[in-house]
Request: fold
Amino acid sequence: MIMSDGPSLRDALIDAGTALLAEGGMPALTLRRAAARAGVSHAAPAHHFDGLPGLLTAIATHAFATFAKTLHTAREAAGSDPMARLNGTCQGYLTFAATHAGLFHVMFVSPEVNRGDPALMPHAARSYEILREACLPFTGVPDETLEVAVWSMVHGYASLGFATTDPRQRPFSQNLNFADLLAELLAKRQSPATNPLAPAPDTR
Amino acid sequence: MIMSDGPSLRDALIDAGTALLAEGGMPALTLRRAAARAGVSHAAPAHHFDGLPGLLTAIATHAFATFAKTLHTAREAAGSDPMARLNGTCQGYLTFAATHAGLFHVMFVSPEVNRGDPALMPHAARSYEILREACLPFTGVPDETLEVAVWSMVHGYASLGFATTDPRQRPFSQNLNFADLLAELLAKRQSPATNPLAPAPDTR
DNA sequence: ACACGGCCTTGACACTGTCAAGTAAATCCT
DNA sequence: AGGATTTACTTGACAGTGTCAAGGCCGTGT
Reply:
């Protein structure tokens, strides 16, 4: 009843795939290449994943876990000011998208990953929740409109390539900071929770 | 001096590829399949496009042209109220993304298309410009911050799957309208350009 | 001792994009 | 007008992909 260390090849394949993704982007990620890098034959992955979609889903699951961790640390490192915390969370979002473009693509775009996978969903939901928590001080109560607005804006900003470090890829706007967009969105409620007329009841 | 009708096979291949994309999504689009559907041999496309990236770039170019047209008609059909016009433009954006998911993917995501292609860029720029024009009444002068904010938000909203007609794919927020997000973003400047001297009742 | 069942390998298949060579027709150049 | 050249396409091949079927190897359980 060993049960420990488990099938380490599975993790090795996930790591190999992630490395391939980081080195050569999406087209470099291949079942056979991941298998070769892990030192096994080309058909070995079939015993740990349900084909290529299965490997991609596992990679996405792993990526969402570190994504959630990245967002959390970025938020907590931003201090106590609500605006700074929300902006820090978004900067974590954008930095992750820029520095892990391959993973970001697998997580959000690749049509092969099963986004309803029971192992993936909790990590994805946790990521969303961290952003939602950072929105909370601005409304006092959960406000889906604001949450989705921020989420859409930061995700669109990243997807359109504004977050890239290579300005040659940016559509335009050489010096435009995401913090400006955030300020635009939250201009009318700079921080109603800090000086509330109605004291916000505890949240969940 | 024929110059007319030109290489019609090129257009046929673009149409075939677009049809494949609409029917089976990204994985269904294949050089050989597009060639077969156009009634030519598997190597014929090489004489009209620079491989698969060339075909994808041509499809994206064609798609951006109709995208710009869609945005324009959506904006003009929305009447004269600035908010209605901007919202109409965004609804056109979202409807296009939802009803032409394959084309949308090729246009904005697919890493194979050459987004610096001299034939593609004008149509893409025209699309962006239509959205920018719809933002103009809210500032009076071009305001890159607002433009990018709206653009990011609508693009992110579409990319995250909120625009899909299938609610099973939506992350959450069963009944959340993009118009609400837009109102949130523009709350502080309902239409200062129409009555710029009346600053009165904006905050509460 | 022996069958069993995970884990992995080998081999094959259909399919992909791309290249090289060949063919038929249209065009061009004396 | 007639040969040479260019254009548009076909055929055939090659490496690479995901996936399936069959078999081997080894540890475990009875």
In short: The helical segments of chain A are 8-24, 31-37, 51-76, 82-99, 101-108, 121-135, 144-159, 178-185.
